[in-house]
Each structure stands twice: as structure tokens, then as C-alpha cells.
Batch of 3 targets.
Target 1
Amino acid sequence: MLEIDGEKPIYLQIAEWLEKEIIDGTLKADDKVYSQYQLAELFNINPATAGKGLTILLDAELIYKKRGLGTFVSSNAREKLLEKRKDFTLRRLVRELLDEAKLLGIEEQQLIRLIESERKGRA
Amino acid sequence: MEVITLRDVTKKYRSFKVLDQITLDIRRNVITGVVGRNGAGKTTLMKMIAGFTKETSGELRVFGERPFNSLTVSANMIFVDDRMGFPDAFKLEDILIECDRFYENWDDELAKRLLEYFQLPLTFKHRVLSKGKRSTFNAVIGIASRCPLTMFDEPITGMDAAARKDFYRALLKDYIAHPRTILLSSHHMEEMEDLLEDILLIDGKGVGFHGPIIDLQEKFLSLQGKANALETYATRYAIIHRSMAGPLTEWIVDNEYSEAELNELRQAGIRVAGVTASDAYLAMTGQAGGGVDDVFNAMERQ
């Protein structure tokens, strides 16, 4: 099961999960993508909901359809996603971080030190 | 294509109107969750569709026919609830034999395997089953009959958490393999919402909402914050529902704001979050005002 945060509609979670599969290389260019019925089984959700998740990737041209054969990963899907994540996801996370810092009354310098210490902890 | 159509359908019991001029279509092979408060008329609606009770006025069609006294509807439909009547003398295996005889798509092997999994011995009599076991048995009948129109009215009554989870999973798996039109009513919307494609909300004797569950999930936003921070915005937003989320005030508002407006709220320390379908349902059917707290507050003021 997905870690459902109860806020994002499931079809978005499905779309994000598929994007993650492409980013981390589980699904490579021209690999076959799960059908809406496989996704429905996998995540225990209505097939229409799973289909809507796939539609998001189709609309963004991250995956493409081959008539009668199924859906496949576009050749530039990973690059597109990395670009999008940098631009969008990271920016959103930074914004949330700043909101939280403001709420807690944490100064900018303190925040930067915190990021630095986390980074060192990983190295 | 529509399996069920209602045009201005009204149902009265003597002079009491239960459902008032309902118009709706149920599409073929869609799982629809029928929700509403106690006494909203969910069961009446489903029993009318099943042909168990007659509409008072308006036009009701199921598979193109008026369901009351219709053999076509009866042969292609199953209505599962906790009061499903079976003859007292019948063992579970006798019921299976009759189901096999009556329902064209009946899958006897699936029925027997599911009963074994749920530990329901075929030699038991239906009337000796516990409440939860009886619900489980009836639900198995509902799944294995594979009727083009399958209706479950509060199917999980008395089932424990594990049985409920198994039931929803079995229903989904069999639906994926054999799509059919399913109506499913339950008070536990949060448990079944992932399974649904459409939601039909019965409220105030009519249709409060009918459409894809995704639309219901995106209909509202939740704003949470300190009461005084929120009050600044009280005139700007149409508040669907107010409640207390612990020490914080929560408003459910229509989801029609720009990203800039939302950012302004966030900077004012207000948490903006999505609303699940079940929370949207609660907000739409909850009484206006402060909920049951109002009762206690009014008594304290005396």
C-alpha cells in the first residue's frame, strides 16, 4: 500500500509513484508501464482512479501508447522529470521549510547551519 | 450506457416523503458508493432499484424496464444486506445450490473457496451464523453471483476489520476480472472510498452530490489555524463547514482559490490541505454550526 497522507487524491499519488519509478530507473525508456488494472490490483483502488493516474503521465508525454500493446516509457521521460522536480518539487519543499522556520522563529543563519549539519551527517 | 435511470422519482411511505423527485443515471460497469446520513433514504432508493418496493411517482428504469415485478431485473440483479432471508432449514450448501440454479453467471468454485477462506462450513445453517459471519456469507453470495447489477446495502455490518478488508479486496479483484455495475452503501466511507469510481450522496431527500469521487476530492479545501487568524478571512470565503480540529479551528471551503491566495493564507500561519472524499462527505452532511458541541454549549449557558 502507498503511504496515504489523506490529503492528495490517490490518482496523484499513483502518478507520483510512477514518476518515482522512472526517476530511480526501475522503469527505463521504452519499458512497458503497468496497465490500469495492474495498478488497481497493486494499490487496491478502482481501475478508473488508476487510469486517471496514467492519464497524467500520458498528458505530460512521459509515457506513450502503442495500440494493442500497452503503454511505454518515453525516451526522454527521466530527463523531463528531473527538470520538473528541481523546478517544482524542490521549490515547494523549500517554501514549506521557510514557513516552518518562520513559525518556529528560526533565523536564516540557523537554518543554513541545520542544512549543513544534515548534509555532513550523510557524507 | 446507463443501467439505471431515474426521472423525478418520488417515494412516499403513507404521507411521509422519503425521496423527493430524484433524477439520476448510473453508468454501466461503474462502482458507485451510496452514502448519506442515517435515514437519508439510501436503502429505500436501492430497494426501489431492486424492484422490492414501488416508486410513488416518476420514471424508474433498470435495464430499460420498470423494476417492480420485473423478471429481467430480478434475474440480473442481486441485493445483499444483513436481512437477506433464506429458509430456516437451509444449510449454506443448499443456498449455494439454489444460487447456482438462479444466477446465470454464478461461480460455484469461487463461492466455495471464499467460504472456506472465511471459515464458513457448508454444513452450517444460515440462521445460526453470528452477525459478522452472516454478513460475510451474504457478501460472498453477492460476489459469486456476478450479477450485471450487484447491490450491497451496508454489507460490512458486524464484520471485523480483517473481514472487511478481505471483502473489499475480493470485490475489487472480482470486479476487475468481471466488470459489472455495483452499488455499495456504507457508513464507513473512508474504508471503501478507494474502491469507488462514483459517489452518490443522498441528502435532504434528494441528490446532494453525484459524480466521480475524484471531483468530490477536489471540491473543497481545509483551512486550519488559530481562530483569530482565520476570522480575518471570514468574509472572503464561503465556509461549508466549521469545526474544531483539536485546539485549532478548521474550515472547509470551496476549492476555488489562486495559488497566490493560498500562499497568503499559509504565510498567515494557516494550514491549507486537501479534503478526502469522506471528509468532504462529512462536511456536506454535517449540521451547520458547531456540530454536537452546540448542544453542550447551549446547556452550559443556561
Note: Chain B touches chain A through 22 residues (CB under 8 Å).
Target 2
Amino acid sequence: MSQAKKKHRLVDAKEPNLVEDIFVHSLPPLIRFEGAVIENIDGQAVEFDFAGIKDRPIVITDTTFRDGQQARPPYTIDQMVHIYDLLSKLSGPNGVIRQTEFFLYTRNDRETLDRCRRLGHKYPECTGWIRAVKGDFRLVKEAGLAESGMLTSCSDYHIFQKLKFRTRKECMESYCEVVDAAFEAGVRPRCHLEDITRADIEGFVLPFVERLMEMSEQVPEERRAKIRLCDTMGFGISYPGAELPRSIPKLIYKLNREIGVPSSRLEWHGHNDFHKVHTNAGAAWLYGCDALNTTLFGFGERTGNPPLEGAVMEYIALKGDTCGMDTLVITELADYMRSIGLPIPDNYPFAGRAFNTTSAGIHAGGLRQDERIYNIFDTEKLLGKPARVAITDKSGADGVAHWVNEFFGLKGEDRINKIRVHKLARWVIDQYEVENRLTAISDQELEAKAKEFFPDHWEKCKAGK
Amino acid sequence: MATVEERVKAVTAQVLKLDAEKIKNEHSFTSDLGAESVQSIELVAMFEEEFGIEMDEDAALSVETVGAAVEFVANVCKEQGVEVQE
């Protein structure tokens, strides 16, 4: 590492290069690729064309009402109908959020599904979720659903230790009988390959999926089996060179290019046990799954699933376009979820109350000069949440001035400079130095002080509101 | 009427809670007189109030010493037609 191989000359400039072709600010920063990505699989260098994702029909699917509900007390019917309504609004006319799945076992499950469908939204399409039990397809058919997920767990942990099959063959035959029942019922089966990242890929997964593909040949295209790759315990790894069964690139390659499952019938479902959930989900899209299964705010079994709103931002970054999605609904959904008792941490990306709030004075100074310095994108336009400053002893006069200007909605020449906020800045400092305060100062306290120190602006602001 | 220098030193002493007699023109507001970030803002605000002037924020905050502040304030007073004793 000590010997430099290439000299790099300073490119002096009088004008800044803000790399605005990537950091467009009106959208999340774009994700662009150059050249093919190589993965060594079975001794062969295999190429993946990540840049091609711009033209692929990738979609987001949702399991907020299924996996998402396994991590919390049940939603009421009204709550689910409202969330479904908002999901549809977020999805937009192009159906980027393509499907959402429902339990079908109880009267409440079925009533929820009926009421969601009565809203008349095209997207997300409603699908079901059942155990791998033949009789359960009756429920799917009675509900009039075209597609249902079914459990087809594929690791030996599940096959032998949980489901108590005597052999893998017995397990595969049992699953195939249920798939046959789906075809007979006129329902498209979506086989959830649970625990795939701990499974014997060559010994069970590939022969099973190969059989599913053969069975699918007897039905029309729209009823052929879909494959959901379920990283049940979050063991999946996106790094090039990782070994099976944990390698996401290799798993998808084997199913997509060796077995021939088209990308349109491959879906990734992850879990966040190792903090890899969103990156793994993005990798699954790039390596060839068209569908990415998510939950709102990542709520799901244990550590949760790929967050839907993260997938929305990733989608826009990859496509360079919102494709009709109404991203402001993310904030509406977050507010609604909080109102029904779902905790969203304040620093949670895109939806936490303080995700774009700085309390460092030096960052507030940057924000004051050019919002782009410390705001990830135009969060006011895309999420209805302008960059904010939380006031503490570290905020400085810059932070106080930013807060005051945001509070009064002052822009450009009308903005109050930091000299004019010195009394409020002094009050803030004294809270910590004189009063020995240890907590951040609330908006309510600051509003009271703003009224005291800026009575004219306060009156104007009140009149405006 | 007190001079600009005397008034600048008096304001500085009041804001930084110092003895005006001990403040010298060559003193740096931050390293010699211990002005913290918010106190620098307060100094500018109090100079404006004392002299009835408006100063450019960035230019005023870039002044480092007491002597430079005396000169800066005197110039702004002249520009804005405020009579002072130099």
C-alpha cells in the first residue's frame, strides 16, 4: 500500500461541483452503475447487469397485515382498511406497490379483505396467505383471490426438526400435492421457501423448484407458481463471493438462470436479525428478483422485514423517477401508525420525528447557508418535512436562527439573522449553564419564547395561519 | 461624550463580565477575553444597540480584536451617518 501507482492532480475550481446529476435534491440521490458486476459461481465468472434495473419491471409487495402483524397486537379492521387505503395512495396509478397479503382464517380476516376490496383500488392487489394444507385453498377460492402464498419451508431445520417429515422426498411430495390443489382451485400458488438461507440448495431447493416449474407448465402463465425466497432468520449475505446457502447473488442466479424461474416470478422476503435487511433487499432486486416483499416501517417478526418506505426510496433512486408514487403519504402513514400506538423511533429514516433534525450548531450553520449541505434530499417536497434543528446547548445561534426562521416560515431576504436571535440564544444557553438542564428544549417552550422576543413576527405568523 | 473606543470597551466589559479598564485594543475577543460563540453574537447585537447602527453579520463576526472592532464600528457609523466621538 505504500507505493503510489497513480498520481492525482488537484483540479482547482472557483465554482463548486455539487455532483447534481446524482444528488438531484428533488429526489433521493440516484444510484448509478458502471460496467457489469461479476460473481464467481461454480468456477465460472457470471455477469450481472445492474444498470439494466432501470428498465426492469421491479415492484414492491407488502406484508404489513401478515408478517407485520406477527410482531404486534392485531390491528382492528378499521385500522387495516385505513392503512390499505393509504398504501394504495402511496402506490400510485402504476402499482409500484403491487400486492399485499392477508390472513384468511378468521371472520375478521375475511371481513378485512372484503372491506379493503370494496374500496375499489386496483393496487395493491390483495393476495392470501395459508399454511401448506390442501384444504386451505378452499379459503382462498371462497375469498375469490387469484393468488395465495403458502408455506413451503425448505431447510432441514424446518423439514425435519419442525415439520417432522421423515425424508425430504416425503416433504417435497406433500408440498407438491398442495401446489396441485392450488392449480385445481384456479389459484396461483406463491411458494414461500422459508429458511432458504439455511437450506441445502443443490439437494432440496433446486430439485423442488425445478419440479414446481414443470408442474406450472400445465397452467396458463398467470397461474404459474411464484417463488418467494424467505430469508427467515436474516442470514442472507449480499457480498460478492459469499458461499451458498447464504449468498443472495448465488441463490437468485441458481433459481433464475439455472432453473429458469423468470424474474417476474421471483420475490425476496428478508428479516433484519443482522442489520442487513434493506441492503439485502436491494441486492435481491439487482440480482434478479422483480418483487421485493416489505412491511411498513419494517415492522415484522422479531427484528422485522425490509421497510416499505425504504424500498420506495430505493426504487426512486434506481429508476430516477417516482413513477407515480405519492411519497408524502409515507408521513401520513407514520403519523397514523403513531396514533394507533406503533412506536417509530425519532431517528428512524424517512419517518421518525427527528430523522432530518440536527442539534449540532455547526450543522445548523450549514443548513442556514444551503439546505443541501445537511438534508439528504428535499424532504419538505417528498415527505412534507423540512429539515429542522433541535435546540440544545450544542445548537448555537445558528441553530436558534434556523429554528426561528422555520417556525415563522421566513425565506430568503425575510430570514432573521443570528444577531437578531441573540436574546433567545442566550436564554437557551442559560437553560444549560445556569439552570443545569439536561434535556432538549421542546418546540412548545421555544414557541413561548419566540412570542416574547419576536412579537411582530408572531402576530404576522398567527394572522397567516 | 465618550469615544468609540471607550464605548466599545464598555460594551465588551458588560457582555463578557470584565473590568473595562483591563481591556486592551490588541486583545482578541475569543482567545484573550474568552468570548464564546453566543457571546460573540451578543457583542455584535449590543454594539448595534449602543451605536444605533446595523452591521453586516458575517463582516462583524469576522472582527477578531477590540481595536479592529473600534475601527469597524467607527466606519459603520460614518457610513450610516451616525455621529460619534473618535
Note: The CA atoms of residues 4 and 84 of chain B lie 7 Å apart.
Target 3
Amino acid sequence: MPDLATHLLAVTPFLKRTVRRPELVLLGAVLPDLVGRLSILLPARPFFFWADTALHTPVSAALVILGLALLFPEDRRREAILSLGFGAAFHFALDMMQMSVTFGTPWLFPLSMASFQLPLIWGDESFYALPALILINFLVFRRPLLARLRAIRRRRGA
Amino acid sequence: MSGLLSDSHRLVKIAGVAAALVIFVFYASAVGPKAYPSLDEARRDPAAFTGRMIRFGGDIVRADESDFSCRGWDGAVVTVRARIGAGQEGHWISGTALFRADGTLDALTYHVYRFRIIKNFLAVLPLLVVAWLFFRTYAFDVRTLRFRDRRGAGEDRA
């Protein structure tokens, strides 16, 4: 998996006008790793490795998103599912591009443990993309960013 | 709204989702080691795994010209024949190898995760940003077991 900074900055350019709930898209973009990489905080045991493997799959992410959506008011659930789902789909799209020496995400779990990747980058080297992503984000959000900076400067000057 | 996203039996649906995830975890821990056996399985039954491909991974504790040693999750050290180069101690390595009768491995594919610490470090800030954005927007009402919008329902923030 690429690092979470890459996951977030890759999805943020798409937030500008496409979705009403950017905070949920961003949560969706880190959600598969939030639930599927919990073993980092747990004792090193093979069971937790397989728990991570099971939870870091599209079907598990869909279930987690459904469970989360049910915690929102009824009239917001569809929107929550779409926003969280968009972020999670983006997460898995990036994960698909990473190289793996053993096996990657079992995309069809629980039907199959088989995994396939489009091997472009090692998971631990994804931060090489950060400067480019920061630049893209700046170009996309430069107007609101610069407007906010100008407003802060004006407030300090006043 | 009706069906899966409706309020009827909401807590039962959430419990169902949680139960499905627990089943997934136990299912993966049962079928995963068979699909992708690791050093743990090979050590339990060396005769059955001699000459077979297995997964290995751990912290590199020694690296020489022709081989290296890595420490697995259980603290056991295994010698792997592969040229990874000197000065790799302390890095995480993951790969596939042929299991030998003497308990050593002949590496087939491997990757030294040199930037694993940077990657973990890069996870902290995005998590804080997502948590801040989410809880700035939503508050969890323990009484109703729902997230409510802090800014009031129906506000269009597009």
C-alpha cells in the first residue's frame, strides 16, 4: 500500500467540485488502511496478518462503509456511502499499482485469495510521488488558497 | 427510504456487518496459510515443505556477500541465500523462497523495505487531518448512536 499521505493527496484534486462531503471522501481514502492495517498496533502474530488481509479487501471495505453509513441519519446514508465509497475506490486503485513480492490485495476475497497487481511502484517508495501531488494540489486549489492567504494578510494589516 | 439503508433494525444490520467481518477474519486465517504458506507452516512440517515455495519476512539482522539472516515475528532467525548487499541490517525484508531441509531458504523474489519507517511516519499527519476534518463536521450522539452534523442538517457546502 502507498503511504497515507499519497492516498490523501491523490484524491484531494477530485474534491473541488465533484462531491458535497469531502471529509467523508477523505475518510474513505484512508478507511481500508484504518481497518485493514490494525495489526501495526497489535502483537505480531500470523492471525493478525490474515485479519489485516481479510479486512483490506473491497468487500470488507464495502461492509465497513455500510456499517458506518448506518450511523448517519437516514437521509444522509446514500450520500455517505457514495462519498466513502469514492474515497475507498481511489484507495484500492492506488493499491493496485504497487509491486508485491508475495501477494497483494486479494481483490475477490472471500471468493478467492488470488491477487493481481499492476506493478508500478513499491509500497514503501510511494512517497516519491508526494512532490508532484503537492504541486498538482496547489495548482488545483491555488485560487482558494491564495484568497485565504490574502484575507489573513489583510486581517493582520487591519 | 427502505431496505438496507432504512432505519428499521438498524442496530441488527450493524451487528450483521460486524459479524460478517469477524467471519471474514477467521476464514482468511484458515484458508490464507494454505494458499500462501509461510515459514511458520514450513517449520511445523519441514518434510512436507522441503523444496516448496513459501513466504518469508522479517527484520534483517545480518547481511553478507552470499546470504543474510532475518528475524521473523516470533523472534526466530532464518538464514536466506540471496545477495541483498551489505548495510541492510535493520530494514524489513519480504519475499518468497524455496524451503530447504536444513531449515534455510533459497530466495526467489524479495524486496528490502528501506523506507518503511518514512512510510509509517507519513501516516500520522493524514490520519490527524482526516480525524480533525471528520470530527469538525460530525459529532457522535451516544444517546441515539448516530453521527449528527455539527453545522446543521441540509446545509449545502458544495
Note: Chain B touches chain A through 63 residues (CB under 8 Å).
